[in-house]
Write a structure and sequence with these properties.
There is one protein chain. The protein has 348 residues and is of the alpha/beta class. The protein has two domains: 158 residues, Response regulator (Rossmann fold, 3-Layer(aba) Sandwich); 169 residues, 3-Layer(aba) Sandwich (Rossmann fold), CATH 3.40.50.2300. It is 41% helix and 21% strand. The chain has a seven-stranded mixed β-sheet with strand order 1-3-2-4-5-6-14, with helices on both faces. A six-stranded mixed β-sheet has the order 8-7-11-12-13-15, sandwiched between helices. The protein has a two-stranded antiparallel ribbon with strand order 9-10. Strand 4, helix 4 and strand 5 form a beta-alpha-beta unit.
Length: 348
């Protein structure tokens, strides 16, 4: 179903990943052209919503027209891509999430004069008419690992993933290396349970849709002494909040690190268990790609977005602000600078 709407309204509404994106095919509609977005399944999910926010900003600041198609099934996604390509009036066609990216590939090959942008997936840049936006989530996860180590009272922090795939393990790598960096700075020995970045092996739920499984894994990690757990497993990770809340009610001090969006803002955190979240924001990438099109610098290939582009970061500490010492907060500024200039590595 086609959804033509002012993106300003859509953003007011706001797990799992996305893919592919040289030559202009669309006609100019707004003063500076038109961008079209093929949403992931599920309507206003966090990734669709953040992409919409970027499109809203582009609509307002770059004076481009915007068209968005929602999907309820994989078949809808294919039909939506086909509709945008057949219309022939989209300057850039964006794909949100992995399922969209996979469905988009045949259209990319069959329409070399149409420009595409895929978010959160890369083929290594094999298609010249596709900009493939890769989010450097390891950079933000590094900061979360550093903070989790710094506030740990047991000397152990936990992490698990949904599947052993790069979009997941990138978070886990950054998190573990952040803990290691904290140890090196302060002479500590905080242990990471659930992931070894050198061996690239660890703990996985093998599902992104089962909060009960996430709760069971969190329970095991807390039982092993971890006092924070970082689930990189989409809604499966919501079960970690449940487990942390139960334990907090029983007098334990355990915490959660959210993923993709600001979980404290999303869920309210009434039990004060969410330390921070590692945020992946598609909005800046959508705006940056539209801006490149408008100013004539857009090209296909792999595009990296992270702390420097404000596409990845950690959320404010909110209700657990009091447990994060001032010296750790002060460290974040120096860490961000080092990560951005490349002097602090965030991946193995």
């Amino acid at each position: 179903m086609r959804i033509r709407k002012s993106l300003i309204v859509l953003v007011a509404l706001a797990t799992l990943v996305a893919m592919i994106g040289v030559a202009p095919a669309g006609a100019n509609h707004g003063a500076n052209g038109k961008i079209c977005i093929v949403n992931d399944i599920g309507g206003v999910n966090p990734f669709n919503a953040s992409a919409a926010a970027g499109a809203a900003e582009a609509e307002k600041k770059l004076h481009v027209d915007v068209d968005i198609l929602d999907a309820d099934t994989p078949a809808d996604i294919t039909a939506n891509i086909d509709q945008f390509v057949s219309d022939g009036d989209c300057d850039l066609i964006f794909g949100v999430a992995f399922i969209v990216a996979v469905a988009m590939e045949p259209f990319v090959i069959a329409n070399p004069d149409q420009a595409f942008v895929v978010l959160d997936f890369t083929t290594g840049g094999i298609y010249p008419n596709v900009a493939e936006v890769v989010f450097e989530v390891d950079e933000a996860a590094f900061l979360a690992g550093y903070i989790a180590a710094g506030v740990s009272e047991t000397g152990k922090v936990g992490v698990f993933g949904g599947l052993p795939i790069p979009p997941v393990t990138a978070f886990m790598d950054g998190y573990a290396l952040g803990v290691e960096w904290y140890n090196s700075v302060y002479g500590a020995d905080v242990e990471v349970l659930g992931w070894d970045p050198d061996l690239q092996s660890g703990l996985f739920s093998f599902t992104f849709t089962d909060p009960a499984a996430g709760q069971a894994i969190a329970s095991a990690l807390y039982d092993q002494g971890a006092d924070s757990v970082f689930p990189v497993a989409g809604p499966t990770g919501f079960g970690v909040i449940d487990e942390a809340s139960l334990r907090t009610a029983n007098g334990e001090e355990v915490r959660v690190v959210g993923v993709d969006t600001d979980w404290s803002a999303d869920f309210g955190d009434p039990d004060r268990v969410i330390l921070t979240s590692v945020i992946k924001d598609l909005g800046p990438a959508v705006f940056n790609q539209a801006a490149a099109w408008v100013d004539g610098t857009w090209t296909g290939g792999v595009v990296h977005e992270g702390l420097a582009e404000e596409s990845a970061d950690i959320a404010r500490f909110r209700k657990l602000n009091r447990v994060v010492p001032g010296f750790l907060k002060n460290d974040l500024k120096e860490l961000r600078s080092g990560i951005i200039d490349g002097s602090i590595p965030t991946s193995p």
